[in-house]
Each structure stands twice: as C-alpha cells, then as structure tokens.
Amino acid sequence: MARLIGVLLAITMAVAVPAQAQQSTYSQWNNPDSSAGDGKQTQAFIDKLNALVDRAERARAADPTFLRDLRDLARGFDRPWHERVFDDEFLDGDYAKDPVWTVVSGKYWIERGWGLRSAIDPASNTNTANENTATSNEDKAAQIFGQILNQVLTRKKDGSGDTRSAEPKAAVIHAGAKVSNAFSMEADFSSWSKAGRLQFAVYQGNFRGAASPGYRLGYSPGGKLELLRVSRGGTSVVDRADAPYALEDKKVHRLVWSRHVDGRMTVTIDDKSVMDTTDRGFRDPFSGIALINVGGDYIIKKISMLGAP
Predict the structure, then answer these.
(1) 242: closest CA among 229, 219, 223?
(2) E strand or H helix at 88
(3) Do 18 and 62 contact (CB within 8 A), yes or no?
(4) pLDDT tens-digit profile of 244-300?
(5) Are 19 and 157 members of one domain?
(6) What per-residue confidence (pLDDT) applies to 65?
(7) CA-based max dimension of the chain
(8) Residues 40, 79: Cα–Cα separation, whole Å
(9) Peptide bond into 99 cis (omega under 30)
C-alpha cells in the first residue's frame, strides 16, 4: 500500500505542476500507512486525488488521456462505504427480530450452524407460507403481493397463464434498511441444487414484490449472473456475466456487490472480479434488501451492507 500511495503521490504532483499558482490551496498530505490504517485515510487520499483530477480537467492542465488513466487508477481503490447499515449472521436462530425479516411467500428457516435457508422442490409447484410469519394487516398485504409475484413467475412464456408445466414458485423475504445509493453488499452463501435461481435485491419505497423498483443481482446454477433494473417502465437487463466457476459444491462462497457514487457497479465472487458495469437508473437511496429463491436450495450464512455518507 505504501508503494501505491507513493506512486499516486508522484502522479498527483506531476498533475499539480501546471497549476503552481494554486499550490497554496492544497492541504498537507499525510501518509495513510503512518497511523491506524483502517482504510479511511486511504479513502481520504483517493477523494482528494479525484478532486485534483477534476480541477485539472477544468483547467486543461494535463493531457486528457493521462487524466482519464489517472482517474481509472484511482477508481480501482475507491471505497466510499464507511457506514454499516445492515448486518445479519443468523446466529440467534431467529430471522424475525434484530434485524427483522418478513417472509412474503414461500418458506425460510434457520439451519443451525449454517444460516438462513430456503429450498423449493423444482418438481413441485406448491409452496407453503412460513408458519412463523406474523399475520398483521401489513404482512397480509405483503403476502398478497407475494402471490401476485408467484403468478407472474409461474406464467408460461406464451402468456396463456396455464401453469401446469410452469416454473416453480418463488420464496421471497425482505428486510428494511436505510441503504445509500452507493453501497457494498457482502453475502456468504451456498448453493445446494443444480436447479433454480437466487436473487439479491435492493429496493426503494415499501416492498411491493415484483413491482418494487430497484436492482436485482441473480445467480443461476452453473455460474450465471444477471444484473437487472426494475422500474416503472418494467424490468431490463443491465449486464450478464459468468462466475469463475459453478458454486454447486455445498460450500460457502462470498459474493460482494458494490455500487459507487457515479453508478458504477462491480461484483466479485471469492475475490474474483466477474462484473464491472455502470447504470445511473437510480439516484435516490434504497429502503431495504430482499432475497428471492426461485426453485432452488440456498443457504445465506451472512449478509451485510455498507453505505456511503
């Protein structure tokens, strides 16, 4: 890290040379490795570097290609997420409190020693609601939306509505959280079936099932990833990618889905980069996260969210 900071500092000084008259406005640089080293000082340096590049672009103080390369280099180390806004390791054996998860449809339970589990028999189209789900008016309304979601998911591609050979229903669960527009989701999960699909979602407003606006990152057995944007205009594909390997080994794998302040989104699995794309379809904060299991068998061992100021 010290070497990286040294290189960036040298480049920063090179960019600053054409603006010698303004050097007095710059604050003193401090080595991020000289104290706590918790990442905040490194991020502060990256923020200052980005601001410097912005000023250099406006003043045309350096070659545009050089400035673009410098900005791309800084983006690789940009970590604007400092605030932990959600964290659940399911160690208390109860997903219905601290934090509160609400089952909309299907069944979820705590698999002791593993985490939050949902399993759907792909050969069956029946799906019972979790018996521990509260029966308040709000939850009943959520269940209705879940049923609507199931109807959409089980409808045949020809639009006939005949579900005799339909796709298995979805098990849906969500939790409220104040998530900034820029966020980093970290999920440790395992896949136990070669069928189905698991989606991680962030949504805006009250959760309304399939109609909830936001982003959804889906994993399908075999290593297929798909990033979707859900809005009033419908659902569109932002990007598709292949994981470095299939995850159906019943082992825990770590997925990190990050969104930057400029709309750039990256996804890694077990520290391997699998997706890097940009979408600015949403600029406001998100109000919660959701998990959607369509015909598969998955265990979420841990899920956490970091937000940006």
Answers:
(1) 223
(2) strand 83-88
(3) yes
(4) 999 999 999 999 999 998 899 999 999 999 999 999 999 999 999 999 999 999 999
(5) no
(6) 79
(7) 75
(8) 9
(9) yes
